[in-house]
Specification:
Shape of chain A: globular
Number of helices of chain A: 12
Order of helices and strands of chain B: EEEHEEHEHHHHHEHEHEEHHH
CATH superfamily of chain B: P-loop containing nucleotide triphosphate hydrolases
Strand order of the largest sheet of chain B: 6-7-8-3-9-10
Helix content of chain B: 40-55%
CATH class of chain B: Alpha Beta
CATH architecture of chain B: 3-Layer(aba) Sandwich
Oligomer: heterodimer
Largest sheet of chain A: none
Number of strands of chain A: 0
Largest sheet of chain B: 6 strands, mixed
Distance between the termini of chain A: 43 Å
Radius of gyration of chain A: 18 Å
Strand content of chain B: 15-25%
CATH topology of chain B: Rossmann fold
Distance between the termini of chain B: 40 Å
Radius of gyration of chain B: 19 Å
């Protein structure tokens, strides 16, 4: 495998983790977040600092997940106060606060970021395997959650929080759980990214990243683990496959987003299901 | 006679309107009480305060001997209260069965981590099927809730409430929007639930059905309980006529 392919697969794995974890928050539990990049970034910075200090891969990745999750729970508390589009705007604010804060902190490298992050000791292919492993675990966890009573309850909270409350469901606990789990995985993805590039700057976690991740969720089919996984893979590959698109990445994502919302609100998952049922008929 | 639900001096003000003024009511175990009164009397407000959806400015709500005044809705439901909404609110994206299954698993939803490790739904499905049959929705289990007509949605709402094993069932206009036959059937279904021991508090405008099935009626007017007794007593009470017909007309009559 060429270095390019290894790096591409690593990026795909990280994007799958990010999109699938965002889908747990926005798809399963209905809490639209446009700040997933902040949790991803918080995890990356936490892991980078721990990696530089300890040279311990497991500690660094754990730090990424924990810091991502802690920040996620704090933002989750905001979701108890504000709903739907107001929450989306709040999370945009969180993303800008995060990047703005990091840029001014000399201990986080400011604009220059953190360089000289030690290697994981696994080599490029080893890193890739680690990322793919975690991406598979993330997808499996997502499928499991959706089949569990937690996923069932998420659907109720997502559809009608007040009605859920009258069925003895404490919606606030579920929203916090969704944020806690989803952002822990985003933080973990951040840690993996730090080891993958060995050099992080805050630009990698800005608002545009959050928008692209939410675009993956919507284009894949909000709430569908497989749809979102497929969208994360396709939308990572697309700009690579069609090089001239790379400069117009945002335009393409935005255009696809509008098309999906207008023509197939269920996203790729719905289109695929429609295709299956059509081919099943004689 | 054990009191399962006691409301003491409940008052609430919305802006310039005193919606409830020192309303008190004690409901005994197994009772079937109808809460009636003209529009704006405060019936739904009182029910929402009992359910914990609204907070009263003053007064206490005691459920089975425990003061629940400070509890949220979910906590009260777990302590034995169940509520149906005046405007039905099923989870439209779910099947009829899933709507009831979710309610039947209320003991699993109290803690998200417990919910996370629970996958098997057989016990809850079995209970939900039995409850759906009881309210007359057998055969509709696989339909999407969004596809049901109003009459059946009202039954679904009742089924969901019953799945919570309530000791006190609060019903907010469960007959509204139903035709005569449907209303009569639904009232019978509620009476059957009461006959099995569940205490029922019914807020309803359909006086004919209330008088037919309830064993006790309390009348609210302008935020106060103005009459309370058996259906015959209450319907003969001049205060009640006055409340419904209006002060002036009653004075001229």
């Amino acid at each position: 495998m060429s270095a390019y392919e290894i790096s591409l697969i690593s990026v795909i794995g990280i994007n799958v983790m990010l999109a699938v974890s965002l889908n747990m928050i926005s798809g399963f539990c209905g809490q639209i977040s446009l700040g997933h990049g902040a949790f991803y970034g918080a995890g990356a910075y936490a892991a980078a600092l721990v990696a530089v200090a300890t040279h311990n891969l497991i500690l660094a990745l754990a730090a990424g997940a924990i810091v991502g999750s802690l920040l996620g729970i704090v933002v989750g508390f905001a979701s108890l106060r504000v709903r739907s589009d107001f929450l989306a705007i709040t999370t945009i604010g969180v993303n800008f606060l995060f990047t703005g804060f990091v840029r001014k902190q000399s201990w986080l490298g400011g604009e220059m970021g953190i360089s000289a992050i030690p290697t994981s000791g696994l080599g490029a292919s080893g890193n890739m395997a680690l990322i793919i492993g975690f991406a598979i675990v993330t997808v499996a966890l997502s499928l499991y959650i959706n089949s569990s009573w937690m996923g069932f309850t998420f659907r109720a909270v997502s559809e009608d929080e007040d009605a859920a409350t009258t069925l003895a469901i404490k919606a606030s606990s579920y929203k916090l759980a969704a944020f806690g789990i989803g952002t822990a995985l985003a933080g973990l993805a951040g840690g993996l990214y730090a080891y993958f590039t060995q050099f992080i700057t805050v630009d990698a976690f800005d608002f545009i990243v959050s928008v692209m991740l939410l675009a993956m969720v919507v284009i894949g089919g909000i709430g569908s683990t497989w749809g979102v996984t497929a969208a994360a893979i396709v939308l990572t590959l697309l700009p690579e496959a069609i090089r001239f698109l790379n400069d117009y990445r945002l335009l393409v994502f935005g255009g696809l987003l509008v098309l999906v919302i207008r023509l197939a609100p269920g996203g790729m998952a719905e289109l695929f299901k429609g295709l299956l049922s059509r081919t099943a008929k004689p | 006679m054990t009191v399962v639900l006691a409301l003491t001096d409940i008052s609430i003000r919305f802006g310039g309107v005193q919606a409830l003024q020192d309303a008190s009511l004690a409901v005994a175990e197994g009772e079937f009480i109808g809460l009636i009164g003209p529009n704006g009397a405060g019936k739904t407000t009182l029910l929402r305060i009992v359910a914990g959806i609204l907070r009263a400015d003053s007064g206490r709500v005691v459920l089975r001997g425990a003061d629940v005044t400070g509890d949220g809705t979910a906590a009260r439901v777990r302590k034995g209260l169940a509520l149906t909404h005046q405007i039905v609110r099923p989870f439209r994206s779910m099947t009829v069965l899933d709507n009831v299954v979710l309610a039947a698993g209320y003991h699993l939803t109290s803690d998200p981590w417990r919910a996370l490790i629970h996958v098997d739904r057989r016990a809850e499905i079995e209970r939900a099927m039995a409850i759906l049959a009881k309210v007359g929705l057998a055969g509709n289990e696989r339909k999407h809730a969004a596809a049901l007509p109003l009459g059946q949605l009202k039954r679904l709402e009742l089924a969901r409430a019953l799945a919570l094993d309530p000791s006190v069932l609060l019903l907010d206009e469960p007959l509204a929007g139903l035709n005569q036959t449907e209303a009569s059937q639904q009232a019978d279904a509620i009476a059957a639930v009461n006959a099995e021991g569940t205490t029922v508090v019914l807020v309803e405008h359909n006086l004919e059905q209330v008088v037919r099935v309830c064993r006790r009626i309390a009348v609210l007017n302008a935020g106060e309980v103005v009459s309370d007794g058996s259906p015959t007593q209450v319907m003969a009470d001049p205060v009640v006529r006055e409340a419904y017909v209006g002060d002036e007309v009653a004075a001229h009559a």
